[in-house]
Specification:
Layout lengths: L7 H8 L1 H11 L29 E9 L4 H4 L4 E6 L12 H4 L5 E3 L1 H13 L5 E4 L5 H13 L6 E4 L6 H6 L6 E2 L8 H8 L4 H16 L3 E2 L6 E10 L8 H12 L4 E5 L20 H14 L15
Helix pairs in contact: 2-6, 5-6, 10-11
Length: 313
């Protein structure tokens, strides 16, 4: 019987690199350039940049989530922690109240560690950090605390894909599973939806770095659970705005043909998306079917339960 490897952060804790990276990342808050927005504000003095987050992380909710990808959910769910605010702020965000309005409560690093341990104690198979890009220092510090107190489940970095490579390198040897979005291929679409025309270039570099660190997604045969690797999400947008064919071509040609991808059909007009065509209408079944065909034509065949979404209509 194969032995499931210990999470990467256990080794980082033993080597002392977890504590070192926590110090370095925390120091970076004094002139914050953690994400591509590079606001350069002193978050240790509660100066707020684009992400509207100061020294402490803000948590909107945490729970055992059963709507995530199959290799994360298992029998007991994925232990999701939803962080408030965001460094991207898409106009169609389905968590608008959390990302744009900042619903949630500030937590200390110690309290964040306790949340991780509570989720593990509830039987969750992993700690799933949702929208974590702007709170990397707080996460590293909390993981160190939690690991010393007995945290032993994989760590999932569930981001929008708008991540600086330099920041991701601080997570090398700490994160087990990277789960980024690759939202758009076209710079103008990224400009119009989240005022981030550099998003496509940033996401490409970020995903390459994530794959360098953890490789293709590894799934334990006995449990069906992911233990390490890269899982990419791609939300199909109406009118082909997401550029699915080009995104999948990049993943297949430059990352790996074995990249595990969730081609998502959940789009519906949220936030301020109704003010922008064609985002003012839900995705059609035919648009989603076309996207799946494009993924497979590009050579991407490890798709997360693609048939299930047809039941949405």
């Amino acid at each position: 019987m194969a032995t499931i490897p210990l999470p990467a952060y256990i080794g980082a804790l033993e080597r002392g690199t977890l504590e070192k990276q926590a110090r370095l990342a925390s120091a970076a808050l004094k002139q914050c350039t953690l994400c591509p927005r590079r606001c350069k504000v002193d978050r240790t003095r509660e100066k707020l940049g684009f992400c509207r987050t100061g020294k402490l992380a803000r948590v909107a909710s945490f729970n055992a989530h059963f709507g995530e990808e199959a290799p994360l959910v298992g029998e007991n769910g994925s232990g999701t922690i939803f962080f408030s605010h965001c460094n991207l702020l898409c106009n169609f965000c389905q968590n608008y109240a959390i990302s744009h309005l900042g619903e949630g409560d500030e937590v200390t690093d110690d309290e964040l560690a306790d949340i991780m341990l509570q989720l593990q104690g509830a039987g969750c198979h992993n700690i799933n950090l949702v929208t974590p890009s702007h709170v990397v220092p707080q996460i590293i510090a909390a993981v160190g605390i939690a690991a010393r107190r007995g945290l032993t489940v994989p760590l999932v970095f569930n981001s929008g894909g708008y991540d600086r490579v330099d920041t991701l390198k601080r997570l090398d040897g700490i994160v087990d599973i990277y789960m980024p979005d690759f939202k758009f291929w076209d710079e103008q679409v990224a400009r119009d939806t989240c005022n981030a025309p550099d998003y496509p270039a940033v996401a490409r570099k970020a995903i390459l770095e994530m794959h360098r660190q953890v490789g293709d997604l590894c799934i334990d045969k006995a449990s069906g659970l992911a233990t390490r690797g890269l899982l990419v999400r791609h939300l199909v947008l109406p009118g082909g705005l997401a550029g699915t064919s080009a995104v999948m071509g990049f993943l297949a040609e430059h990352v790996s043909r074995d990249t595990y991808v969730n081609v998502m059909a959940q789009y519906r007009p949220c936030g301020t998306a109704r003010q922008m065509k064609p985002l003012d209408a839900p995705l059609s079944p035919s648009e989603y079917e076309t996207a799946v065909r494009e993924a497979m034509s590009a050579g991407i065949t490890r798709l997360d339960r693609p048939r299930r979404v047809f039941q949405l209509w």
